[in-house]
Amino acid sequence: MEVPWRQGGRGRGRARPGDGLAARVGTAARPPAPRARDGACLAAAGISSERASGECRLHFPPQSRPGWVLRELSSQKKFDEIKKANQAAAKKLVEDQFSSSSEDDDEDAEVKQGKILAKTFTIYTSQTDGDASELERTRQYMNEAFQSGAMTCLICIASVKRNQAVWSCCGCFCIFHLVCIQKWAKDSLFLVSSPLTDDDFGKKDYPWPCPKCRFEYKRSETPSRYYCYCGKVENPTLDPWLVPHSCGQICEREFKPSCGHKCLLLCHPGPCPPCPKMVTTTCHCKKAKPVPRRCSAKEWSCRLPCGRTLLCGQHICENPCHAGDCQPCPRVSKQRCICGRQTAERLCASPQWQCDQMCGKPLPCGNHTCEKVCHAGPCGDCPRSGKRSCPCEKSKFTLPCTEDVPTCGDSCDKVLECGIHKCSQRCHRGPCEICRQEVEKQCRCGKHTKRMPCHKPYLCETKCTKIRDCQKHQCRRKCCSGNCPPCDQVCGRTLGCRNHKCPSGCHRGSCNPCPETVDVKCNCGKTVIKVPCGRERTIKPPKCKQLCSRPPTCHHPTQEKHYCHFGRCPPCRQSCQKALLCGHLCPVSCHDEALVKQTGLHQSSGPWEQPSEPAFIQTALPCPPCEVPVPVECLGQHEVSPLPCHSANPYSCKRFCGRLLDCQNHTCMKECHQVAKLNSSADGKKAGPECSQCEEECTRSRPSGCPHRCVLPCHPGDCPSCLQMLKIKCHCKLSILYIECL
């Protein structure tokens, strides 16, 4: 659709196909505003117009937009999408620079890490006069937070990066991904509560354990948000000048064991160090004067004898000043037994003891004696006195203690061992017989019945086909009651480390993390770090501070000092120092093992074959040309310039020669050139045969009154006398004479 408007009031212009979107709709190119007649025309065409700030904007209805407008809008939309994608990629790239414990291996990273640690420990060391010996354990946790791959989630066996949400166990201080520990807690609670019925579910707060130390947490303690180590800040921001996952504030967690003080370090991983505060306290036995000591070591001993009375009541504690109760008295003394018949040497700490003799004292009945073993106090009444029951306990008799109770003659009726039937014998002494009645018995699993004696158990041969609680194996017990025991097989599944199998009993859900650790060593084996099993294939070897001991592979007697490493040694950067043909020493870096690209080794069969990567070989390169500056004089002896030794030859300085020609008036205008010396005593500024010949006219000034030029070419010395004939009139102008100019 073409849009007409007036331009300068002298005709109508049309939007050209080559104009941009702004020029077409009038946003960038600013034509004169449409007149009333043009506005009516535009309104009839379905196009609205606005006039603001001296420009006319045209708005096309969506249904009547021309094709070029739609194409421009589509291109703008694509451009915006690509712009957003590039911005997201750039943001991700910046985050990845800080995402891992993986740090740069250069010295700058170590210096930066040292500054962060010093900043974290500043407040603590100010309380201890610079003593940081108690911070070694905390320093180890912080170094692992900085070191590449040292922080590993034991659930997914992956590195914990700087920008990932984490959770730290308060028992072992091990760090896990937040999503991993949430899934672990959910699975653990499900496995514990799955055997419960619907009525019992949720009535008890079953705990879930830490994957490493098995410290138990309540269901309500399942982490749901990402906090820093001290728990003050939710979703701590990523700061390259702070410990990863730290908020940078003072920790202020209570010391364990609690002493009333709080941690002074900045927010940090691992346990808090011992309390550094100074308190005044006395020793355990309270005999020494109070002295100022560290709060973490306020319990102390004066090493003097304790002196407290022991439990025996006869001796005092002779141990050095100690905490807690005194130990039992270690001395030996003669002590009587409870009944007083025997005396023995025994530890003073246990004065009460019994001998092995029966009491034997006569009872009040006068017929029997006490049958109790060594005891204190009165023996009591005769156990056969008073009313006594018959064996079936249906009848009671009052008889002297010297007579036995007779049987009553009634049926026994005691419940037999089967728990169903009663004894059918008459009242008798001793145990009842086994139940011999025949009954219809059902087996334990309830699938079969059989008539047999009541006292015999009935077990069928049917094997249970129920799945045990591991949800993998069948019970396979004969005649199982349905309450199948836990699976007795070993799990045997490969753990996440891919090196070991699960040694636990067969179970549901995920296996516990591998408890093993693996040593990762440097190349020389002197530096070792321990990592969780399975991480040894992906973690970087530790930095070794030992110097590399490999022999040099170039012509130098010793190689440059560098630290222990894997792979080939770095290229030698020492000066070559080989003697060149000119006598100078080669000053460039050693080039005995230079990488050279090989070309033309493989000819492709056709355009369909993918080009292979270039191959590089290690070879010795020849020494480069000598670049030592040597003073060299130019051909015309105008200057002396330093030139590289390999190109130290006479040269042209590009100036004019400047030697005085034979005419003694002009100099040689040739470019600097070589001049042969015919005589060794000749002047060095005199022109030689190679110089140009003067072809100029003589330009010397003539004597006064001579208007003629010298007829000779440029020459040395004075010009000859002028012999030109002049016509001269006399004073009266009547006679004319012809005379020479001179």
UniProtKB/TrEMBL annotation:
GO molecular function: DNA-binding transcription factor activity, RNA polymerase II-specific; RNA polymerase II transcription regulatory region sequence-specific DNA binding; zinc ion binding
Pfam family, one: zf-NF-X1
GO (cellular component) term, any one: nucleus
Entry keyword set: Metal-binding, Repeat, Zinc, Zinc-finger
Regions of compositional bias (Low complexity) in chain numbering: 18-30
Domain NF-X1-type: start-end pairs: 259-277, 312-331, 365-384, 418-437, 445-466, 470-489, 497-516, 554-574, 663-696, 706-724
Statement: the UniProt record of this protein carries the keyword Aminoacyl-tRNA synthetase: no
Domain of life: Eukaryota
CDD domains: NF-X1-zinc-finger, RING-CH-C4HC3_NFXL1
Chain spans, region Disordered: 1-37
InterPro entries: NFX1_fam, Znf_NFX1
Family: Belongs to the NFX1 family.
Cited PANTHER family: NF-X1-TYPE ZINC FINGER PROTEIN NFXL1, NUCLEAR TRANSCRIPTION FACTOR, X-BOX BINDING 1 NFX1
The name this protein goes by in its record: NFXL1 protein
Name of encoding gene: Nfxl1
